[in-house]
What we know:
The chain is built from 21 helices and 21 strands.
Amino acid sequence: MAMDPAARRWSLVAAGACALPLLRLLPPALAAVLAGVGLLGAVSAFRRPWPSWLRLVMTLALAAAVLFAFDFRFGRDTGCALLMAMLMLKCGETAHLRDGRSLVGFGLFAAFAAFLQDQGPITLVLAAPAALLALAASQRLAESEAGLEAPPRVGPRLRQALLAVAIALPLALAAFWLFPRLPSPLWGVPENALAKTGIDDRMSPGEWIDLLADDSPAFRVRFFGAPPPSGQMYWRGPVLWQFDGRTWTRWDGMSYLEPPQVDYADAAVRYEITQEPTERRFMFALDLPESVPEGARLGVDLSPIAARPIRSLTRYTLESAPPVRFEPELRRATRDMALRLPAEFNPRTVAMARAWREEGLDDAAIVRRALEMYRRDFSYTLAAPPLGRDSVDEFLFDTRAGFCEHYSSSFAVLMRAAGIPTRVVTGYVGGYRNPFGDYWLVRQSEAHAWNEVWLAGRGWTRVDPTAAVAPERILNTVNDLGDGGGGGGMRPMLDIGDWLRRGWNDLVLGFDAARQSLLLQPFGIERASGWQVGLAFAAVAGLILLASLLLMLRERAPPGDPVLVAWRRFTRRFARTPVPKPAHEPALAWAWRAAEALPADAARIRSLTARFVAARYAPAQSEAGTDAALVRDLRRFRLSSRP
């Protein structure tokens, strides 16, 4: 059946609205191309539809463009982009009602697919109105199929769609709160999140330049007491031991070692971290963690490690305190790894460190000598020049400008060459206190690397060579690194936006299986199991469905309604014709079929059906006495001839 212009407009508007949530997540150039194709298709649908050969060519071209944009990698993001390409092409093919139904259904699927990549509030704000428009478009398509005229106003149609959503909302909320949850989502973490994981388990010169320019959140922190000074907020992550001459990596052979002895100070701090997904097991803790949450463990270097990769927003509580002595007795295996350097790399650095040792300097004096050298002769910049094979030599003797990767790497090589056990600690430093939510935001741009040296009598001691560079000599070329007050006059708006995002995380994204198990505490169940939560969902869903059924029964006409009795008698006359009326089929849709099958009675069938629909569903608009006339005419109806 051909689609009328009103139904076509509704379908195209709904498809465009459904495309927005996913379009904003695609690469900008690809999104612009796909949006242009969809707009051209919508315009051509009202003029001259695209021929089949052109649709084929455009399909192949868009598929190639999507694969090129994603470097020919097949995955979820590529699949979502291909889905969007097919939706935009479908906008140019809206000749029949089945095309409209396909377009609207396809659009709804695309809107929901956006949540596979981003579950933030912006996606919801875009997807919810789009779903409402799709419901309204589906209603118009059904009316078009029944031969009804399009109403002149848009408001009543949107109100009907909103009413349908309101009816389904209680069951949807019950499913969200009570349907048993998996420990992690089936689809894992979006691929774009994998490309921006933040701290990794490896570090090479210049590798963090994009990370240090990224202001997206790494995690948020809520302290249960007074927080430490921001300058002392070193958030400990992966500890790097092995060096191949250019890249630092973790020590894979340390898993069999027990955590070392640590004497903590009395000033313990308790806090809660809400960490963004990373697809890695690294957790972050304020130096040094005393305890970790259930299921996690502390490595031999006291880096916190989760039981499984962090694929969704994760909340955990920790306690930390400054160390008085951190592993005062160094094990042989640990000492050997903390002194190891590759042969025939960075000879000038090794020679300088050995010369310092030959001067008779002790370990602490060598550390001070290195920090004084950095403070006097070096500068901080994110625009560090690339380094070659002997990266530490080139940094210390040639370029003398870089950021935390360069300083921590070169300092570790210097100390090891001088015989001082040293390792590189990666994580974050500082943070910004959001006054609207009384929590601290730690961003990816606050990623940092520092060192720990082992000194006799003290154990592992934190040394930050980057901090030795004078602040007035720092050359920031991207943004003010770690400047929580950035944003100028927009700072309050940014704070409110992040506070709202945190609330969304707490209420929606952070509602996991652990929090769900606490829902039944008011009923005396401390930690509900999966079957108890499922039973609660079944009970609530049953009550909602029962209430809906009772409301529907109240809306039905009483058995003695003369109009309904006459209508049922009227439709029974067609029981032995080719077009008997099923109970589930709408009156107007059945009348359309009956009129086509029985042309001799077509006019009377359509007229009586239209009058019945008006009497049943628009009684306020019916004139006095029309019901009695309708009942009389329905009873008098006879088929012109038996088919």
